[in-house]
Amino acid sequence: MNLFNNREIAITIWLFAIFIFMLVKREIRESLLNVIKAFFKIKILFSIFLMIAYTTRLLIVLHLVRLWNTSLLKDSVIWFCFTGILMCFNLVTSKKKRTFSEKLLLII
User: Fold this and answer.
1) Of 63, 92, 65, which is closest to residue 76 (Cα–Cα)?
2) Do 51 and 90 sit in the same domain of this protein?
3) pTM, 2 dp
4) Does 59 share its domain with 97?
5) DSSP single-letter state for residue 71
6) What is the pLDDT of residues 38-89, one digit of tens each?
7) CA distance readout (Å), 75 to 24, 42, 71, 94
8) Residues 74 and 102 reside in one and the same domain
9) What gap in Å lies between CA 51 and CA 49, rounded to an integer?
10) pLDDT, tens digit, for every residue of 14-45?
11) Domain range enclosing 13
């Protein structure tokens, strides 16, 4: 069984090419370094750690009630990295917290 499909492999190749391009350009490389420094601030790392702990507990509970298994691990990691983190930070930084939360609950 293949772990990644052709689309995921192509996206990885393109992202790698863009990353190499970013390292070649001096201005972009300096900006990228600032982004990496900002990512490793304690508040952001603490938030991400809490999100990892919450998601892990949720997946364990779902596994115990047989609604999740290890074949869904890749999808869970992709969801966490792209959707879960964005939703959490949007919820925290939203000026209208109640409105965003209500929209989020309506989507679910």
Assistant:
1) 63
2) yes
3) 0.72
4) yes
5) G
6) 999 998 899 899 999 999 999 999 999 999 999 999 999 999 998 998 888 8
7) 32, 27, 8, 27
8) yes
9) 5
10) 999 999 999 999 999 999 999 999 999 998 89
11) 1-40
Task: Enter the tokens of residue 89.
Answer: 């930070």
Same domain, 102 and 53: yes
> Structure tokens of 34?
């600032």
Overall number of domains in the chain: 2
Tokens for 79?
């969801």
User: Do 53 and 9 share a structural domain?
Assistant: no
Burial 9-24 (b: 16+ CB within 10 A, else e): eeeeeeeeeeeeeeee
pLDDT tier for residue 101 given thresholds of 50, 70 and 90: low
- Identify whether residues 87 and 103 lie together within a single domain: yes
